[in-house]
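A.,

Following up on our hallway conversation. Structure tokens first:
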């Protein structure tokens, strides 16, 4: 599926982890290595400062530094989408202006969390916010963490807002996703992206534009090939790749808490020599038993021929 002016984002757009070298310090060499790994791996864009990027846990100066260095290290090879979600309207606007200054291509915004807005309030908020933004905006539906769904009625009322270019859905609700996909695409507008990793290929088979998959931090070639197979309707390949994707999900359940997914990805990235496993407070990186479990899983995954290209690229970097 080729991008269009109305639906500009497609394929695999990994939600980058934020590599850290200290409690409020960016692991700059690790970030550069990660971005090179993803650019070389055939992905179609980069999404920074999202859930996987731990954005709500980062200081505002660190978020700005992450934007600056991500744009610098990418060197225009891929479009960059920047998460600006915040409880403060002004902070979101200022971060968007900083992203534009650094050369980002679009911003991503979820409903403000902590004090959940009602649907009429959410519609007003989004219209007011988008009017202040210097870049195109992608909506981010993440009700498990924000406590607010971007309801289908709100989506319908926003379809004519020229500042919006798409919606990423991480609700895991396929009924909702198909409804949003249908109303957006029937209007000939918006890229619609799946945020739930295991549902990515099913969503593409049904007509979505791609996925924002955390596992692509590790295996960009695999996820790009999975998207391509689904986009072409190659069901035999999709079936084989879905089995590998299910195996990969073990990485997200090695820990015991909701933070396990991010910890698992970061630990694997450190084990593979890409960047530090340090995680932002209030969380801590895995201890020795969990690290050993991650290493053992990676050893098993190394035997999967569908992941061979990624492991070979990592070995040669």
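Then the amino acids I'd put at each of the 317 positions:
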């Amino acid at each position: 599926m080729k991008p269009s002016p109305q639906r500009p984002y497609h394929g695999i757009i990994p939600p980058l982890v934020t590599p850290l070298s200290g409690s409020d310090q960016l692991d700059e060499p690790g970030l550069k290595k990660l971005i090179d790994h993803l650019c070389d791996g055939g992905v179609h864009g980069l999404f920074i400062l999202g859930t996987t990027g731990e954005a709500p846990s980062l200081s505002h100066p660190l978020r700005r530094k992450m934007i600056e260095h991500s744009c610098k290290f990418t060197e225009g090879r891929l479009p960059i989408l920047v998460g600006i979600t915040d409880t403060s309207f002004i902070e979101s606007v200022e971060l968007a202006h900083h992203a534009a200054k650094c050369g980002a291509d679009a911003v991503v915004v979820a409903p403000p969390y902590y004090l959940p807005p009602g649907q009429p309030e959410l519609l007003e908020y989004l219209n007011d916010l988008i009017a202040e933004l210097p870049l195109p905006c992608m909506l981010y539906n993440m009700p498990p963490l924000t406590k607010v769904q971007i309801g289908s009625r709100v989506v319908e009322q926003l379809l004519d807002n020229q500042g919006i270019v798409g919606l990423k859905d991480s609700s895991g609700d396929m009924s909702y996703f198909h409804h949003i996909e249908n109303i957006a695409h029937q209007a000939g507008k918006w890229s619609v992206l799946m945020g739930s990793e295991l549902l990515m290929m099913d969503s593409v088979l049904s007509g979505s534009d791609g996925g924002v998959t955390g596992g692509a931090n590790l295996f960009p070639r695999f996820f790009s090939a999975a998207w391509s197979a689904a986009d072409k309707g190659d069901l035999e390949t999709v079936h084989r790749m879905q089995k590998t994707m299910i195996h990969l999900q073990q990485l997200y359940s090695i820990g015991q808490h909701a933070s396990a997914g991010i910890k698992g990805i970061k630990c694997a990235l450190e084990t593979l020599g890409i960047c530090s496993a340090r995680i932002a407070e209030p969380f801590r990186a895995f201890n020795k038993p969990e690290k050993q479990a991650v290493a053992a899983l990676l050893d098993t995954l190394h035997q999967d021929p569908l992941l061979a290209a990624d492991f070979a690229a990592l070995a040669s970097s």
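The CA atoms of residues 118 and 148 lie 8 Å apart. Curious whether your intuition agrees with the design.

B.
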